[in-house]
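Hi R.,

As promised on Friday, here is the backbone we talked about, encoded as C-alpha cells. Could you run it through your design pipeline when you get a chance and send me back a sequence?
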C-alpha cells in the first residue's frame, strides 16, 4: 500500500470517536475497524469515547481523571454508551459511564470532569522522569505489522515513532529494560485535546515487548490523569513496565506535549503470558 493510499483511508480522531445523542445521558457510536489491534478496538480509543460522553451535560468541559475496567472487548461496529452523574460540584463533576454492545457490558469507567485554563504551568515536577532529548526526526515510524507478520490496523491511522534504543523488539532483540520511548501523532496532524489524550496513554505497544515479544496484552484496568491542555504538535511518550507476576503486568505511561509539559499520565494492569 502506498503512502497516498494509506492517507486516503485515514479518518480524524474526532470523527471516529463521534457520538450520536439518543436521549439524556445516552449515546450511539461506532467502533471503527481501522482503530483496532488484532481486530479488537484499542482500549484508549474506547476510553476516549466514554470521556466524550462524560461531558454531555455541559457542566464541565474537560476530563480530569478516568478509571476504566475492561470486562470484554467489543467488536468493531455499533456500540451504546450511558452516563450517570454521581455528583455535580463547582470545580469538578463525577460521572459513571458504561459502554455496551448488544446486551453485553464491555467497559465501565468512573470519571472526574473539570476545566483547565490555557497554558497551565507546573508548580513542582521533580518526581517525573526526564524528557528524552531524542526528537521526532531521530525516531523511526513503526510499520503497521507485528514481528509475527500480523497487521496492526491502528498503526495505519496514527504515527508511532520509537527511539532507536527502544525498538530492538522489531528485530527480535529486545533490550530487557521494559521501556519504550518515542513520539505519537494523530492522522493528518490533528491537534490533541483532553479527549484524545485519553487515547494517547494507551497508544504505544506494550512496554513488555522490550522484555519479551508476546501476542496481545489485554488491558484489565486503565487509569488516566489529564494534567493540562496540550500545545499543538506531536506528543512525546515514555511507557514502562514495572512488574510482571502471576501473568499480570502493570505499566506506566508519561505524555509530554510539544512544549515539554507533562499533559497526561496513565497506569494500567494487563494480562500477559510469557514463554
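Update: got your reply. Pasting your designed sequence below so it's all in one thread:
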Amino acid at each position: 500500500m502506498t503512502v497516498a493510499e494509506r492517507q486516503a483511508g485515514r479518518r480524524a480522531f474526532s470523527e471516529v470517536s463521534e457520538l450520536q445523542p439518543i436521549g439524556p445521558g445516552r449515546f450511539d457510536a461506532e467502533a471503527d475497524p481501522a482503530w483496532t489491534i488484532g481486530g479488537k478496538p484499542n482500549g484508549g480509543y474506547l476510553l476516549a469515547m466514554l470521556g466524550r460522553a462524560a461531558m454531555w451535560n455541559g457542566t464541565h468541559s474537560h476530563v480530569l481523571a478516568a478509571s476504566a475496567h475492561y470486562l470484554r472487548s467489543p467488536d468493531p461496529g455499533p456500540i451504546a454508551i450511558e452516563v450517570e452523574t454521581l455528583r455535580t460540584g463547582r470545580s469538578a463533576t463525577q460521572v459513571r459511564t458504561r459502554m455496551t454492545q448488544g446486551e453485553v457490558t464491555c467497559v465501565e469507567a468512573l470519571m472526574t470532569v473539570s476545566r483547565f485554563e490555557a497554558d497551565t504551568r507546573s508548580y513542582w515536577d521533580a518526581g517525573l522522569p526526564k524528557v528524552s532529548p531524542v526528537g521526532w526526526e531521530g525516531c523511526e515510524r513503526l510499520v503497521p505489522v507485528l514481528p509475527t507478520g500480523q497487521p496492526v490496523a491502528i498503526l495505519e491511522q496514527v504515527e508511532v515513532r520509537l527511539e532507536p534504543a527502544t525498538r530492538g523488539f522489531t528485530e527480535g532483540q529486545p533490550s530487557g529494560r521494559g521501556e519504550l520511548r518515542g513520539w505519537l501523532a494523530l492522522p493528518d496532524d490533528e491537534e490533541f485535546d483532553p479527549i484524545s489524550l485519553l487515547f494517547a496513554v494507551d497508544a504505544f505497544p506494550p512496554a513488555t515487548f522490550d522484555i519479551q515479544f508476546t501476542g496481545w496484552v489485554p488491558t484489565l484496568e486503565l487509569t488516566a490523569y489529564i494534567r493540562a491542555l496540550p500545545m499543538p504538535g506531536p506528543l512525546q511518550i515514555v511507557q514502562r513496565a514495572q512488574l510482571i507476576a502471576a501473568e499480570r503486568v502493570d505499566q506506566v505511561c508519561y505524555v509530554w506535549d510539544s512544549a515539554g509539559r507533562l499533559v497526561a499520565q496513565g497506569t494500567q494492569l494487563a494480562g500477559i503470558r510469557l514463554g
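One thing I noticed while checking it: The chain has four helices and 15 strands.

Thanks again,
M.
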